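Box 3.1. Reading complex inputs
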Amino acid sequence: MLQQRFRAMGTEVVAVADRAAGLDGVRAWCEQVEAGCSRFRPESELSRANADPADAVRVSPLLAEALEAARRVRSLTGGLVDAGVGRAVRAWGYDRTFAEVGDRDAAPASLPEGPARWEIDEEVLRRPPGTLLDLGGVAKGWACDRAVEAGLAAVVSAGGDVRSADERTRVEVLGIAGEVAARLHLGAGALATSSTLRRRWQAGGRAAHHLIDPRTMAPAVSPVVSATAVAETAVEAEAGAKAILLLGEDGLAWADRQPWLRGALVVWHDGSVFATTQTEVAA
Amino acid sequence: MSRPRRLPPTRLVRIGGWTALATAGVTAVLSRLPVGGTASEASVSQPVSPAVVVVPTTTGAALPATPAGGLLVLYLSPTPGVPVAATTATTTTAAPAAPQPVTTTTVPAPPPVTSSGS
């Protein structure tokens, strides 16, 4: 098998495939997703849709499918993980690629009351003009899903989101200091980790990070510093991981009640690792 | 809100591959999952509707000692405390302006994938 590492979608992508052509296909696909779904590229289709003054915007099949994935994430999490928080993400300072984000003296002077209302239907995006949709991790998870489902690769990982069609796939979840906090035998399935340990900065004297809580429109305050979810697809795993982190103390109990989640674990603020009872932590 | 509870040993053995460790470490496990527990000032309710839930609004609130559910995983790394920096994806390095480096290696099977969040 061949393993390839490259940077795309603002993170490191690792793909494993039998054929070099498959790896080339994964790389081209990731570039397509970034060109369509990045909010950091002014020329991306998402950036153009965000800037469009019309109430309804026709989008490409690619962006429509990514938005469908984001809508499913919103539905699965009862609105807790919503691409409509983009304006708050930007207000808190994540308004450029993370490498360019710096500390700022003040917290946002004003914030939206909640996520923007948006819908995607028949490749038409409807939302109030001025809405900033942020596909973020959903697009990465969806890209992994589609690459594996299309048979381009057996395993694709993008920034902690993993989709695998290989029963031998194992995953090492990293802890606070970058050490291995837990090993999981993933097999065929998907896993995603959401963490507030990285992509952090200071805003108005408080720690800020990229994970916005739609209930406060501020960076989430949670005893969970890293949440990992296992599901059938990376989009579902991404939804689970973010929701668990946002729910904090109740995150694992919530995960236990979601039939679409196969398992979950969290790294607690003191470095302890907790897992749901069905999670198979490997030796 | 449900509180951390004492977990029966039968549930501990459901952690695959950790039966012996969990049995030997049951005292330690239970000591980390106290009955009752310190009340949290940073309470979080279920996400039925974003409009009606109570959420922590400050970073100064005391953090709970344990989650409301779940089992403590006693994990003994063969290299405890050693960062696996070589395989950790980093998001703080600016992407180079030159063509992206692509490394391809031959592997007998999918090697372990690291997941640290992004």
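In summary: DSSP finds three helices and three strands in chain B.
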